[in-house]
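Many introductory courses stop at the sequence. We go one step further.
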Amino acid sequence: MTQKIYPRALDFSSILASRSCFFLGPRLTGKSTLIRESIPEALVFDLLKNDVYFALVENSFSLENVIPSNTEIVVIDEVQKAPQLLDEVHRLIELKGIRFLLTGSSARKLRRGGVNLLGGRAGTVHFHPFIARELGDDFRLNRALRYGTLPAVYCSDEPSRVLQDYVGNYLRQEIAAEGFVRNLPAFMRFIDVASHCNATIVNYENLANDAQVSRNTVYNYFDILKDTLVAFELPAWRNSYKRKPIVSSKYYFFDIGVATAIQSRSAFRFAQSEGFSFETWILHELRSWIDYNERDDVLHYWRSRSGYEVDFLIHDHTAIEVKAKPHVGVRDLRSLRALKEEEIFQNFVCVCMGSLPMYVDGIEILPYMTFLDYLWEGKYG
């Protein structure tokens, strides 16, 4: 596939117009490319470069000395590697009004290192792999579901190789290098098993047995995946009155290609269905829409103890069921119908692989691209 720069949906100009910002996203999502294309005038310090890292860390006050007096925007790339710099960043924001863009691929060290020391003077924006509207005519659903949409992967002529390099270099080695786990073999077993739990309600006891670790270790490892932005926790919606809900969370990897690549290396030889892949990709699109538009919406899923389940709930206004099939039948809508009885949500949508929109009993049945168009046009919420 031809290598080219795709315009991203995130608008940096409005975000940095009046404030500093933490810019968080997994490795290889294209943060550096977006910065280079959007704010070429910014002064950039890349902490992945050893000389830059040691120069700033040895004396954080040297940061002020290397920033020219007329500088308006300063980028500190991979700031989680030196969270001690945040004190000086805070001081320079107040003293000189400099706007900082602080990028990172992990929130774990930032929280432990005092991210709150900025005192609310910096917002947080999350960045994601490509979404369909960014790729435009180059978007192919089959490719997205098989390889995911990490820019370096999606644009590669060898996506499988790039994915395997990503899993080896950026997930296992980086987490080990950051010192997040003491027992790397145990964590590697866990991540193998966890990849097969993508988009499902986790049975912690079974997962702990398969990974040969304790249940508490499983909880801790999931926290590491969330903190390093590799996994997303989708909480259960608990406010149903007519049917008792299940309260356990689901976990999704940030990119379906990454989850599939881990599965392919795993000793556990069973792959997830296309339905889970399609569901994970739709969640990725929803999260990107929320983050890029700086919305306050919170995502949940709903499952009743009697077996009804709706994949995604956007705040209290839109319920979404995802079906990886071209034709949706009456039975496919049963969970949305059950949720309608709660009389809380305004929009009920079944997203599918069909080609024609339909409207049945107050439920929209939409092709996935039509749904995404409606979403970005502001139809929901």
